[in-house]
């Protein structure tokens, strides 16, 4: 049984369990290159997903390491900051106009 078959089987099990997004690891399995994507889940969470292949001496994939980072709160804070800045700028423009 090849490493690719074992890795694909484990990967697709993880996808079915919704443990990892399909896109990053699938791209790594096809390209043998690291891949970073942003995934937006149905429940509103947003994550940055990085998948990196671990290759053997023959440049075959032994396994793929995936890292998920939840950026939901960071995005909320960014939006809040932008809204605050916009209100501040609007207030300054009104004061200048008076």
If you had to describe this structure to a student in words, what would you say it looks like?
This protein is α+β, with helices and mostly antiparallel strands. Helices cover 51% and strands 27% of the residues. The protein is built from three helices and three strands; from the N terminus they run H-H-E-E-E-H. It has helices spanning 3-16, 22-31, 72-97; strands spanning 35-40, 46-55, 61-70. A three-stranded antiparallel beta sheet has the order 1-2-3. Strand 1 (35-40) and strand 2 form a beta hairpin. The N and C termini lie far apart (77 Å).
Short overview:
This protein is α+β, with helices and mostly antiparallel strands. It has helices at 3-16, 22-31, 72-97; strands at residues 35-40, 46-55, 61-70.
The coarse silhouette is elongated
**Helical residue percent band:** 40-55%
Average pLDDT over all residues: 82
Low-confidence stretches: none
- Kindly provide the radius of gyration, computed on alpha-carbon positions and rounded to a whole number of angstroms: 21 Å
Widest beta sheet: strand line-up: 1-2-3
State the separation between the terminal residues, measured CA to CA: 77 Å
What is the string of SSEs from the N terminus onward?
Answer: HHEEEH
Attribute tags:
single chain, 98 residues, alpha+beta, three-stranded antiparallel sheet, 3 helices, 3 strands
């Amino acid at each position: 049984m090849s490493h690719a078959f074992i890795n694909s089987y484990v990967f697709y099990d993880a996808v079915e369990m919704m443990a990892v997004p399909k896109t990053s690891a699938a791209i790594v399995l096809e390209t043998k290159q690291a891949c970073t994507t942003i995934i937006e889940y149905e429940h509103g969470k947003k994550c940055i997903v990085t998948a990196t292949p671990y290759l053997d001496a023959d440049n075959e994939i032994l396994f793929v390491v995936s890292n998920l980072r939840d950026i939901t709160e960071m995005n909320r804070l960014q939006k809040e900051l932008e809204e605050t800045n916009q209100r501040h700028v609007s207030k300054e423009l009104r004061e200048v106009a008076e």
